[in-house]
From TrEMBL:
Matches recorded under SUPFAM superfamilies: beta-lactamase/transpeptidase-like
UniProt keyword terms in alphabetical order: Hydrolase, Membrane, Transmembrane, Transmembrane helix
Signal sequence bounds: none
Ranges annotated as spanning the membrane: 23-45
Species name: Anabaenopsis elenkinii CCIBt3563
Any one GO molecular function term: beta-lactamase activity
Lineage: Bacteria, Bacillati, Cyanobacteriota, Cyanophyceae, Nostocales
Domain of life from the UniProt record: Bacteria
Protein name: Serine hydrolase
């Protein structure tokens, strides 16, 4: 073979090798380009969906998810974060076989769980909402009311339950999706069958509105039950609880504390009057309730549109931009309802009497005739007619609250639900609490 022939063959082989490498490089570049473009397209398509989800959050939630207001007590034990809530679009929860509630709503991370450890000293410190002012403890000492630190000696459930906590978290997610303020939301949920508890911001002091009347009812039975022998007082109690009548509530406060409304008092006179009003708080504090003020009347009633004279003095408007108003927590309200349900509130007989006063008919033809009923816009509207409801709601133009013992027709599902929404967004949305109630009821009746 000639040298020229050998040279040509080497040149051909080299060219083939180069062309083969070029072909491989071409395919690699092409495949890489396709992969990169597909990733870019996927990112572009997913971006609007993410933005759409963010638009459902209220202004307070756009910067960060709702965070627990943690007291020094809870700091010492630590509050766990719930970062893996089972949100599923199936009919049942993939993890537990339970109904998927609010499956179309974004998960809210870092929700507080009330554990056994954190519950040991519930109420030991005061968590104050931004629009709330607390009565100084010195006020009790100054008027001669010695506060004895008492533990909660009731059998109120201390055991945290993850299933209950999931439904509480779902409520928070639902409220977020409605554009309402979770910063102004508190929830307590008690399963009366399993004696377990879950909550969200349940130790934050909030304005209870007419839910305060639950405490006034218990105070009447606990300190002046003999007054109930008077037809006037029995009638006032019925109207205060069944109709949420403010004038009747005013009368009960006057009679039980001997602190009638009137003109402004001198310092010495006011201290005596103030002591008697604070005795309502003192009554519950001695029984282990914390973060509570039920010493002020609710308005309007009769021709009185707002506090005046001594009822204005008690709010101490001159010493602070924020007046002192009534306040309590959903935990306190849940505990009070638990004591009524279990016969621990004052006595078994009085507990039965109080529970009977709280019973509401869910038959639409009965409640819709009442102008200010306890059903429309509250828990009862979301329940079936054959369920049992024992409740006390409260509202004003800044607030929508409800607190209830709810029992299924077969009695298998029995629970306490308390929700406080201290923001105009809750007042305006009259479908929010009924929908929350419906979803909780569906969940509780499914697990039994």
């Amino acid at each position: 073979m000639s040298n020229n022939t050998k040279l040509r063959r080497r040149i051909v082989r080299k060219r083939l090798s180069i062309n083969f490498k070029r072909l491989i490089l071409f395919y690699l570049v092409s495949i890489s380009t396709v992969i990169i473009f597909s990733l870019l397209i996927r990112q572009i398509l997913s971006k609007p969906s993410h933005q759409a989800k963010n638009t459902t959050h209220p202004p307070t939630s756009q910067v960060r998810d709702p965070q627990p207001i943690v007291s020094t007590v809870t700091n010492s034990t630590g509050i766990k974060n719930v970062n893996n809530l089972p949100i599923t679009t199936n009919e049942t929860n993939n993890n537990s076989g339970q109904p998927a509630i609010y499956s179309n709503i974004n998960r809210v991370n870092n929700l507080p769980i009330t554990t056994n450890e954190t519950n040991k000293n519930l109420g030991a410190t005061v968590n104050i909402s931004s629009n709330m002012r607390i009565i100084p403890e010195d006020d009790y000492t100054q008027v001669g009311l010695k506060l004895i630190s008492q533990q909660d000696l009731t059998q109120f459930p201390r055991n945290h339950d993850q299933k209950l906590q999931n439904i509480v978290n779902y409520i928070v997610n639902y409220v977020t999706s409605k554009g309402a303020s979770t910063k102004d939301l508190s929830i307590s949920l008690v399963d009366l069958n399993s004696q377990t508890y879950a909550g969200y911001e349940d130790e934050v002091t909030r304005f209870p509105a007419s839910v305060t009347k639950l405490f006034w009812m218990v105070y009447l039975y606990g300190t002046k039950p003999n007054l109930l022998q008077q037809p006037e007082i029995q009638k006032a109690l019925n109207k205060m609880i069944q109709d949420s009548d403010n004038e009747s509530a005013s009368l009960i406060i006057d009679k039980t504390t001997r602190t009638e409304s009137g003109d402004e008092l001198t310092t010495e006179e006011f201290q005596k009057w103030y002591k008697n009003r604070l005795s309502m708080n003192h009554f519950f504090k001695e029984d282990g309730y914390q973060n509570i003020n039920i010493s002020q009347k609710l308005y309007p009633y009769s021709k009185v549109n707002g506090p005046a004279g001594r009822d204005l003095q008690i709010r101490k408007p001159d010493s602070h931009p924020l007046p002192i108003r009534n306040y309590t927590t959903t935990y306190n309200v849940a505990r009070l309802l638990f004591e009524i349900e279990t016969g621990e509130s004052v006595s078994k007989q009085y507990s039965r009497n109080m529970k009977n006063l709280l019973q509401r008919s869910l038959k639409k033809e009965e409640w819709e005739k009442i102008e200010f009923n306890h059903i429309a816009g509250f828990f009862g509207e979301g329940l079936p007619e054959d369920a049992q409801l024992f409740s006390k709601m409260g509202w004003n133009f800044q607030t929508r609250n409800d607190a209830a013992i709810i029992v299924s027709p077969d009695g298998k599902a029995k629970y306490i639900l308390v929700v406080f929404g201290n923001h105009p967004s809750f007042y305006k949305d009259k479908k929010m609490l009924p929908e929350i109630s419906r979803q909780v009821y569906d969940y509780m009746t499914t697990i039994y």
